[in-house]
TrEMBL record:
Domain of life from the UniProt record: Bacteria
Pfam families: T2SSE
Coiled-coil parts of chain: none
Gene3D superfamilies in UniProt: 3.30.450.380, P-loop containing nucleotide triphosphate hydrolases
Organism: Pseudobutyrivibrio ruminis
GO molecular function: ATP hydrolysis activity
Domain Bacterial type II secretion system protein E: 193-356
Family named by the database record: Belongs to the GSP E family.
Protein name (Swiss-Prot/TrEMBL): Bacterial type II secretion system protein E domain-containing protein
Length: 413
């Protein structure tokens, strides 16, 4: 007889093997790689200081470096076809000035996230699913050299203050920009530099695309439009890469144009090119000589209370900035929209209240009751799809908990 007292879970596939996301790349061509490796050894590897100067230099420095690479090919590979030379120079340019072997993943439309966990372990998320890839750097040294070059391109100093940091690249491509999260090897127990790249489209997904991707249907779109127009707040929850920001970005364009909007975020993922009264702020640290000043989401929200704001939007709630959702924004008659990490729609408000308690002594029950001041929609997402929609219906004072009305729930199968 078993000594373990537990209820066995429902049968579920136990995945212990990764699917491979494969890309076509010049770096996978053996003939091109033989030439590239020699070019790299003679132009990149032996000119470390010159490379540093070039990546932080002017357009003239860039042209001189590219001409140097071209001269090497002409002098050492007589008879190299023009198309082959073009490909190798593209490889060289992406290695020195760009995203190197990761470029094909960035160009893939369905890829949203790329992580480098080691020189030979590159993973990605595509259409909401996680994959290993057939992408690899040449060696650990090759990866670390590129990692440091990319930091120099983005003006990130290699010091203890930037061992874990992030930046935004708005110049890499016309169709997307990148949020890049860096973790120096000193913070990583495997002694590997880690980098995470999130692709953010410069053009929002259309509702037709989101329907085809399975995120929404026509009825949901009409529901969201109705609730946005009638002053409902929105809290969109889910794991990273679940589609929270993509959905919120679409909803922002539906906020009535006669209402003011303040968007506060850590990285510039939320935007609107159509709303005339929308202002955007992000967190940052300013340095001047030996002095520095950090401006947080809390600072921006506090200032927003003086600016006659009708809609407060927080890109991603993680900490004490949540307090301003309860004690200020909601109690001034303003509407709140934002995203948060949670396991389901109902627990998203619990998570919101927990974040507010980082900086207050309000009981959880009091904070949750405050959410009944304005009508509120809770959306939970997973794998780029909506899994649940609830509305806050009121507060049950006998049991001291919120009452919800189920609008939608996706059933498995």
């Amino acid at each position: 007889m078993s000594e373990l007292n537990y209820v066995k879970s429902e049968p579920k596939e136990h995945i212990l093997k990764s699917e491979i996301y494969e890309v076509q790349s010049y770096f996978n061509d053996p003939d091109l790689m033989d030439i590239y490796k020699r070019l790299k050894a003679n132009v990149i590897d032996i000119n470390g200081s010159s490379i540093v100067k070039t990546v932080q230099g002017t357009e003239q420095d860039f042209l001189e470096m590219m001409n140097k690479a071209k001269r090497f090919l002409v002098q050492n590979y007589y008879g190299l076809k023009d198309d082959e030379q073009r490909k190798i120079l593209e490889m060289f340019q992406s290695a020195v000035f760009g995203y190197y072997v990761l470029t094909p993943l960035l160009d893939a439309v369905d890829v949203s996230d790329i992580k480098v966990l080691a020189w030979n372990r590159v993973v990605c998320k595509a259409s909401g699913n996680r994959y290993e890839t057939n992408v690899s750097f040449l060696s650990e040294q090759d990866y670390n050299d590129w990692y440091e070059r990319l930091q120099k391109i983005h003006r990130i100093k290699n010091n203890i203050h930037n061992a874990a940091t992030y930046c935004t690249d708005r110049k890499c491509d016309d169709s997307y920009y990148l949020r890049i999260d860096w973790q120096n090897r000193r913070l990583v127990s495997t002694d590997d530099n880690n980098i995470h790249i999130r692709k953010i489209p410069t053009k929002k997904y259309s509702w037709d695309y989101l329907k085809e991707a399975g995120m929404v249907n026509d009825e949901m779109i009409e529901y969201f439009k109705d609730r946005i127009n009638n002053k409902y707040g929105f809290l969109i929850s889910g794991a990273g890469g679940s589609g929270k920001t993509s959905l919120l970005n679409k909803l922002l364009d539906w906020i009535p144009f006669n209402e003011s909007v303040l968007i506060s975020q850590e990285s510039d993922e939320l935007y609107s090119t159509v709303h005339p009264q929308m202002q955007f702020e992000h967190t940052m640290t300013l340095e001047q000589g030996q002095e520095s000043a950090t401006y947080s989401l809390e600072d921006e929200l506090r200032l927003g209370l003086l600016q006659d704001i009708d809609n407060f939007v927080i890109g991603e709630i993680k900490g004490a900035e949540a307090l301003y959702v309860f004690t200020t924004a909601l109690n001034t008659g303003a509407r709140f929209l934002g995203t948060i990490h949670s396991n389901d729609a109902a627990s998203s408000v619990t998570r919101l209240a927990q974040c507010a308690r980082y900086k207050s002594d309000y009981p959880m029950e009091t904070l949750e009751e405050m959410l009944t001041v304005v009508p509120f929609v809770l959306v939970h997402m997973s794998h780029f799809g909506i899994r649940e929609i609830l509305e806050i219906e009121g507060y049950d004072y006998e049991y001291q908990r919120l009452k919800f009305r189920k609008v939608y729930k996706k059933h498995n199968g």
